[in-house]
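Changelog-linked ticket: gamma-amino-butanoic acid example.
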Amino acid sequence: EQLFHENTHLLPAENGEKVTRLFLRELLNILLAYINKSQNRSSKVLDFHYPHQLKEGREGFSLELPDQPENLEQLLVDCRDTLKYGVKTGHPRFFNQLSTGLDIIGLAGEWLTSTANTNMFTYEVAPVFILMEEVILKKMQTFIGWSEEEGDGIFSPGGTMSNLYSVLLARYHFFPHVKTEGMHALPRLALFTSAHSHYSIKKSAVTLGIGSENVFLLKNPVLSPQGLFPFYVNTTAGTTVYGAFDPISDIADICENHGLWLHVDGAWGGGLLLSERHRTKLRGIERASSVTWNPHKMMCVPLQCSAILVRKKGLLQKCNQLSAEYLFQMDKHYDTSYDTGDKTIQCGRHVDVFKLWLMWKAKVVHSTHPSTKPSAAYGNILQHIPEHSNVCFWYLPTTTVLRRLKGSVHVSKVAPKIKAKMMESGATMVGYQPLGDKVNFFRCVFSNPATQKADVDFLVDEIARLGSN
Ligand code: ABU
């Protein structure tokens, strides 16, 4: 205990094994207590505080950095408090995000990854992880339906980055000289996406110097805006809000006729490729030039784990390679094609593959046949069979309550008011948003394996309770 009053006895200090073990064991106890609490329905999903409250310090929890080093005991208290004031995204009543749940095998993978603490740029420093990435990417490509001769890919830091890669690669595919000459050597480019696609498509156009005004929504009848060079079409497999699927096969026909790059943003819906029953929603995906697939969403791999998969072999490398000599020496004594870091726009790259590899081994992929029929109890809410596990709905309180909400568009104020009360009460969490001409509605996402029907009943009752007073 005395040793815990300093922090200088941890490895690599001489004879540091004992204190290191004690410290990590204590931390493990904190983490296990948190995991158990996350699964306990009588515990809250969150203990909400406003930013100023957290900043001013709660019950001794200070975010400020000290002048003197803190001892191990205090650091463990800080760890406990950090979890205490956070959000339990693995809680069965957390419906707020597409990435939810806490997979224990995945968690073990993440712990091991941090312990290995290596970098994915070269085989030299990450031999096992680099080969695992190759194995997993190949497996994902097989589920997409690409042949043995096709397929490449890389794990990237999230779906937005994977989508960015898709636009970057498409541009390079049509205009390889952009790499050396830049955008001034290109015609004005146009890319196409659907109205409900993720904002990262537009962001990619902004980031890559194409410009947001040159992103056209597919519902527009114009496929060849004058003076522009159309080169890229994004389809979404599982839109963020509605969970809708674009007709990939039909759009692939258009892309083939016009020689356009077809991207499938399957960040959310890509996981359905693993289901014999539901993979038909992605019919035609094998015709895509690139695919984004985030196992950290439907497949519950701990954040983060996103892949950009590319049909044309070698394009990633050609597009991004700069051959920094201090990393990617060509005269190494092994096959340097395994130094995959030069395929990316990053230098340092986190190991995102191991937790997925471990989970895949633990679960193996069987076809699943879940019922898509809503139960009778939700007949009033679910008037249509959903394409995915997003359920969007308005809660309409009694007219007496509505009248109390001053303003011209009353219904738009209901969801934000209930959400605010919900966060302060902390028993459950669900998102809301407006979309197009639809005023604020709730979006409930089901991707947490811990959630049961009783939790959905709880959410509905809680919304009604908070909405009635
Ligand atoms: N597209 C990022 C995830 C959005 C969400 O969880 O709601």
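Closing comment: Example verified and attached. The pocket of gamma-amino-butanoic acid is lined by residues 97-99, 159, 198, 240 (CB under 6 Å). Residues 183 and 209 are 7 Å apart (CA to CA).
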